[in-house]
Prior knowledge:
6 helices; 31% strand
Amino acid sequence: MVSSAPAQGQPPIVCIQWNRIRSWRVIDFGGLVTAGWEALVGRRTGAAVVLAGVLALAGCTQSSDETATPSTSIDQKTANAALWDPCTQVSDGTLRTLGVDPSTRESGIGGVQVEGWKVCTWHDTPDWDYSLTVWSTSFTVDDLKQKKENVDFADISIGSRNGVRHRIASDSKNEKCYLAFPASQGTVEVSVLNVTSRATVPPCDRASSAANALMTFLPR
Length: 220
């Protein structure tokens, strides 16, 4: 996105750009900030990131009244409609057995839909210590491997299904874990994010348990 800075005394214009495989760039003209996905699915962050979450995601252009507007292709909208939707296909009963509250359900990233993905996140409580997210995408596991921020891939097997485990390079505190499984549509992925010390179960242990329980729901 290229745009001029706001007039002196005006609040910064915030925009988000999605650069293909789970990488957000939050631009506020006061500097360039790279935010992990968890900042937009409810992690306790500043107002600038929260505001950014409701603006343009897939493409962001600057209009004459200095508001950010999204650009989405009709073809991509059609492709998105065909994706399996975890928010509607995972039962509340299963979610409760996994220790998350169905009422905390949030569709999309920060409540906004993203091209090429259907995403659903649940937290353990409204004032949460950890979250469970299921990602449904037209991108393949090979696409995920091409993103430099995705590292330490390892083969896994859960039930009768093979997949890969990986982490995010910037995750120095080992708060996140991602389990990805190939599917005919592209990929389905289960991830867990721990945000406080009260979340004592390692994220990969919780993600593995969740993936095992969710396997009957995940598309093949």
